[in-house]
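sorry for the late reply, my laptop died twice this morning and i had to redo everyting from scratch. anyway the thing you sent over, i finally got around to it. pasting the sequence first so we're on the same page, its 91 residues, then the predicted structure underneath. double check i copied it right bc i was rushing
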Amino acid sequence: MIKYKDFAIKTTKPGGWISKPEFEPLEETLLRLNSWIEENELIVMNVETILMPNVYEAGSTRTSSKGAYKSTEPAGTANLWYQIFRVWFQA
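ok and here's the structure:
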C-alpha cells in the first residue's frame, strides 16, 4: 500500500497589519521530516514539493520562508498558495 504525509513550514510568529509573519528555517522542517521517517522506519518512495491553494487558516502553519505565494484572480479575489513537502512511502 502507498501512503503520503505532508510537512509544512511552521509559523513561529504570526504577522499583523504592519508586520510580516516569521517561519521556522527550512532546515528545521526537513529535520522534522527526516526524524519522522527514521522513527517510523519507512521505505520512502519519493519526496516532492507542491503548491496548494488556501489550505491553512491564518495563524496556523505556513509553508514558505517568505510566507504564502499570493495570486490575484481576474475577479479580484486573491488566492494564497502554500509550499508543502509531501513524502510518499510504503505502508
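The chain has a mean pLDDT of 78.
thats about all i looked at so far, will dig more tmrw
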